[in-house]
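hey so i finally got around to running the thing on that chain from the lab meeting. sorry it took forever, my laptop kept dying and i had to restart like 3 times. anyway pasting the input first so we r on the same page abt which one it is
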Amino acid sequence: MAASKQKSHTHPQPTTVILVRHGENDWVTTGKLPGWTPGIHLNKHGRKQARATGHRLQKTHPRIKAIYASPLERTRETAQALAKAIQPARRIITNRAIGEIDVGDWAGKKIKKLRRHPLWPVIQFSPSRAQFPNGETFFEAQARAVAAIDRLVKKHPSETIVLVSHADIIKLAVAHYLGIHLDLFQRLGLAPASITIIRFYQGRPFIEVVNDTAHLPAQKTKSAKK
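ok and heres what got predicted. didnt touch it at all, straight out
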């Protein structure tokens, strides 16, 4: 009697989600809160950062299936630089759910002035209790970002995808998957054009990398130019 063949159990490959923060822009020098303010573009160094991130991903993750980006200019410009390095014909898919947190009436306002508002210390130390005037709560922003990621993980089983988003949105998502209370999410650092990687094994998230900046070019200082 022939020996019965044992069935081999193969586990599916994980879905890899690469979260990229947009590159540097000059808005930070204005001292204003950006939010969904239109017309904020990458500066010269930010474009270099985006290209460097694209070349890095082309080497480490050559089989990227899709690139999603927040609708704002700074994220789409970063995504376009990634696509050019990874696969020039790659189409950028706009996803509003990974867009910047909606700061409502505070968009474009001077941060120096906002610091005097009673809501400011709540945002800094108890963000779970904060809602921007005519804008979102941090819970709402976290919920939509996590829901978007979970939907894309189901849409791309065993594939690698890139999401180009914003600092707070990425940090809120990472905090969720790590099981960190929302009030602590701002303890996570996230530099412009940094790479954060989460692998989903049959739905279970594993944080592989957070705020990787090893690929980024150094920024020249004024003294270095002399």
